[in-house]
């Protein structure tokens, strides 16, 4: 891969992170992610951005170890105390993950952006790629959908306090426990659901593994109010772009409603893991996650041999 036999995962399959082998028992996982604020509170924004960046390592089955801050901040107009709060939020979430923040870099920019570059470790024999889904596998999703739509409603001052709290809780929750559990239950493939939405990241998984992923509308976990705000056309621009790009790759069943179709293209921030594993293992993983208090984890579909479309949504 790219001429280096130790580069075990690169850019070829649009996986969540790169993996580079150091020896037969140890490899490093590298990823970076940063974005503009999705909430007004700077500390909460820092938490969300850090959780989102860490998620790429968890999706590979790795353990994050160090982080470096990436900050874009205007030279005037915003107090430095606010910048410090963003970084404090990131540091708090990194500490929760057992990750050391070792430095970073700040540049002047008219638009605030924050995130982290993460380095983790992984056993090169136990990498969970996005390309390993097998026909007969079940698909399990670990977090509810709808953050893009709810945050659009929030920006328009429409979101209720209860809905805001639910969205923030989902976005600040680490995928660490889900990652540990999926390794325990022999996951074949995984990816985290972020900017491309469920349909987009599922499509990447299907194409990487040369299979078809079947998503079942009835079982999708949703944040409170997601359907109502979708019906009220609180649809972010990223969702529309996802639908334009990935829509031709999705075969949609006649019974799927317009709102539920919109929700699979909704861009997620710090979303859950989509995991493919054998049927018995999927049910064991679901029981494990529910025992840990994850009430959103749900089996949402199955894997079939490749057909005319990478994704079927029924």
The CATH architecture of the largest domain is Alpha-Beta Complex
* Rg of Cα set: 19 Å
Largest β sheet strand count, sense and barrel closure? 7 strands, mixed
Given this structure, which CATH class of the largest domain is correct? Alpha Beta
The chain-level structural class is alpha+beta
Instruction: Based on Cα principal axes, name the global outline.
Output: globular
Low-confidence stretches: none
N-to-C span? 36 Å
Put simply, the count of helices is 10
* Total domain count: 2
User: What's the CATH H-level superfamily name of the largest domain?
Assistant: PurM-like C-terminal domain
Tell me, rounded to a whole number, the average pLDDT: 97
Named CATH topology of the largest domain: Phosphoribosyl-aminoimidazole Synthetase, Chain A, domain 2
Query: Order of strands across the widest beta sheet?
Result: 8-11-7-12-9-13-10
Report on this structure.
The protein has ten helices and 13 strands. It is α+β, with helices and mostly antiparallel strands. It folds into two domains: 116 residues, 60s Ribosomal Protein L30, Chain: A (2-Layer Sandwich); 176 residues, PurM-like C-terminal domain (Phosphoribosyl-aminoimidazole Synthetase, Chain A, domain 2). The strands form two sheets. Strands 8-11-7-12-9-13-10 form a seven-stranded mixed sheet, with helices on both faces. Strands 1-2-3-6-4-5 form a six-stranded mixed sheet, covered by helices on one side. β2 and β3 form a beta hairpin. α6 packs parallel to α8.
């Amino acid at each position: 891969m790219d001429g280096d036999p130790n580069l075990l995962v690169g850019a070829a399959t649009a996986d969540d992170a790169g993996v580079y082998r150091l020896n037969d028992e140890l490899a490093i996982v590298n990823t970076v992610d940063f974005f503009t604020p999705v909430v007004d509170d700077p500390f909460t924004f820092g938490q969300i951005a850090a959780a989102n960046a860490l998620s790429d390592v968890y999706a590979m089955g790795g353990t994050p170890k160090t982080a470096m801050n990436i900050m874009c901040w205007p030279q005037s107009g915003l107090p430095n105390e606010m910048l410090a709060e963003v970084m404090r939020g990131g540091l708090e979430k990194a500490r929760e993950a057992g990750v050391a923040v070792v430095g970073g870099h700040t540049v002047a920019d008219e638009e605030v952006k924050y995130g982290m570059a993460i380095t983790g470790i992984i056993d090169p024999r136990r990498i969970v790629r996005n390309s390993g889904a097998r026909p007969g596998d079940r698909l399990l999703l670990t977090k509810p959908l709808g953050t893009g739509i709810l945050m659009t409603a929030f920006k328009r001052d429409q979101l209720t306090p209860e809905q805001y709290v639910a969205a923030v809780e989902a976005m600040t929750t680490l995928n660490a426990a889900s990652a540990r559990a999926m390794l325990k239950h022999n996951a074949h493939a995984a990816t985290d659901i972020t900017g491309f939405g469920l349909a987009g990241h599922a499509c990447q998984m299907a194409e990487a593994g040369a299979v078809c992923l079947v998503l079942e509308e009835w079982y999708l976990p949703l944040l409170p109010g997601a359907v109502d705000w979708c019906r009220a056309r609180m649809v972010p621009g990223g969702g529309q772009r996802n639908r334009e790009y990935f829509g031709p790759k999705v075969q949609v069943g006649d019974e799927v409603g317009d709102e539920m179709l919109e929700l699979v293209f909704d861009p997620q921030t710090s979303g859950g893991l989509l995991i493919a594993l054998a049927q018995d293992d999927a049910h064991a993983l679901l029981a494990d996650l529910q025992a840990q208090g994850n009430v959103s984890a749900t089996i949402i579909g199955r894997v079939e041999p490749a057909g005319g479309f990478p994704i079927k949504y029924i």
